[in-house]
Every structure is written in structure tokens, then in C-alpha cells.
Amino acid sequence: RPSAEALLEAPATGKSSMPGKSSSRSYSQLGSLGELGKEDERIMESECTMKSEERRQRSGCFLRPSVIDPFGSSKLFMWDVLIVVLLFFTGVTTPFEVAFLEPKFGPLFYLHQAANMAFLIDSGLQCFIMVPDPVCPTVTIRSSDRIIRNYLTGWFWIDFISMLPIDTALIYCDKHPEAAPHELTLERILRAARLIHLLRLTRGARLFERYHTSFGFSYGAMSLAKFFGVVVLSCHFMACLWGALAMQGDDFSWLTALQNAKGGPETIYEGPAKVYCISLYWAVITLTS
Questions:
Q1: Do 73 and 129 touch, CB atoms closer than 8 A?
Q2: Beta bridge partners of 141
Q3: How many of the other CB atoms lie within 10 Å of CB of 159?
Q4: How far apart are CA 38 and CA 24, in angstroms?
Q5: pLDDT at 49 (0 to 100)
């Protein structure tokens, strides 16, 4: 089969006495070559399909799992939006529960269990989502084996620790005090250990690194948004810590001193919500003044 270069060079060499017909004939030959090339491509595609089908029949049901492109899947984006909502729920309710509420079965407990199931499913999805190469961030890892190995040697252990059922253990110790020696010390340890659920917030940092270039925001706007989020969470955490000192401390605390100094009805200083509002006011004034 003659090459395209030879066909194009044929009129220029003067081998034909009729240049117009020669050039038209060469272009028609090029068109036929293009059609032959497309036919060859179709034949090669059919052969590759047949070979892949043969491999699939040999391997049976043990097929290699496919990977997910985070920038080409709308379903994954909607799932990540749900994870962001659950992260906000966890970051707000977990410190408040530890500081002000007693562990018990209720709507808030079951909501946390549903969030745990969602985070467990998300941990499984991390084994199939393409990630940037740690050595060369501009290159995306598409091998499922490397993705799983990268997750197991990195964020997996933080995600695993953040999903430990400490709430259930705390409620069990509260219902069966005879099963736990030194129940007061153990209860305080488990109550503080519930704060490890805040490790889930690291998922938010990973989602930010995944999508921060997709929305087209400037670096200044993203920095301002991160600063605002850190300030709001810091005020909330400090308010919960300050409220826990009043709710779970000794009989005489800063809340008692405030009541003695300011006066007013006792109902102002009772209840988790009212104590949290007073603590939040102190935290905001402390951090912003």
C-alpha cells in the first residue's frame, strides 16, 4: 500500500503529464486510504473487544473493580455534599453533647449512628476514587491496587478511629455500672474520648483539596472562607469547654460566681441551652477582643 507522502510527492516529481488529474487521483487515493484506516481501526477495536471478553470469561466473576473519576461523576459529587452536611452536624453536636448532655438512647443518638453508617460507606468508597500521586501531584493514580494501598497507609486509620462506637460503650457503662470498675473515672474517660469523633473533620480537608480548583474561586476568597470557618468552630469549641467546666465541675464554679455577682433569677443560669449562650458570649468576646 503506497504511503501518503509518496502520493503527495507524485505530482511534484513530474511523473504525470496531467497535473490536475494526477493531483485529483492522489487525493482520491488518500480518501480511500482514510477509509481503509478507519476500517482497520474498527477491526482492531473488535479484536480488543473479543480479547477482553475472553479474559472476562476466563476470570469468571472475579473482575478487577473499576475506579471512580471524582471530576466526572455527578453522583459522587452529591455524595460528597451529603458528607459535608454530616461533617457540619458532627462538628456542632459532638462538643455540645460531651459538655452538656448525658449519654442516652434518643433521636440524637440514632442520628449519630446513621452518620456513622454514612462515614463507613464513605471509607469504602475511598478505595475506588482516583487520587493524586503523592510523589507527583499532577498525575492521577488510576490503579485500584495503588489507590487501596495509598488509603490503607494514610487516612484509613484516622477514619477508623473516628468511627469507634464510644457512645454505645458509654451508655452500656451507664446502664451496667457493676460491669465497669471505677465507673466514675471510666465514665469521664469515655465522655472525653467521644471527642475523637471530631477526627472526621479531616474528611473536609480532603474534600477541599479535591474540589478547590473546580469552583474557580480566588485564593483570597478561599483563605477568607477557611479563616471564617476556623473562627466559628473555635468559638463553638471554647463555649462548650467553658460550659463543661460549669456543668460537670464542682458545686462552686464560674457560673456560680457570675450568678452571685450579676444576680437575677436562677432560671437564667439553668439548662444546657442557657449555659451555652453565656459560654458562647464569653468565647466570642475573648477571641475577638
A1: no
A2: 131
A3: 20
A4: 21
A5: 53
Closest CA to 167 of 123, 119, 243, 106: 106
User: Do the Cβ atoms of 22 and 16 come closer than 8 Å?
Assistant: yes
Phi, psi of 247, rounded to the nearest 5 degrees: -80, -30
Residues 6+ apart with CB under 8 A from 251: none
Q: How many CB atoms lie within 10 A of CB 278?
A: 18
What are the pLDDT digits (tens) for 98-119? 888 877 888 888 898 899 999 9
Please tell me whether residue 103 adopts helix, strand or coil conformation.
coil
Separation in Å, CA 259 to CA 57, 101, 129, 248: 78, 22, 55, 17
Model pLDDT for residues 5-56, shown as the tens digit of each residue: 454 454 444 444 444 444 444 445 445 545 555 556 666 655 555 555 445 4
- Quote the CA–CA distance of 144 and 119 in Å, as a whole number: 20
What's the mean pLDDT when you consider all of the chain?
76
Least confidently predicted of 169-183, 234-248, 265-279? 169-183
Helix residue ranges, H only, the chain: 4-9, 19-59, 74-100, 107-125, 144-152, 156-162, 166-175, 183-193, 202-211, 219-247, 254-262, 272-288
- Secondary structure of residue 142 in the 3-state scheme: coil
How confident is the model at residue 73, as a pLDDT? 80
CA distance 216 to 266: 52
**Would you give the DSSP letter of residue 67?**
P
- Per the structure block, which three cell numbers stand in for 209? 483539596
* Beta partners for residue 68, in sequence order: 129
Claim: this prediction has a pTM higher than 0.70:
no
Residue 141 is classified by DSSP as: E
**In DSSP terms, which residues pair with 140 in a beta bridge?**
132
HSE (CB half, 13 Å, CA atoms) of 266?
1
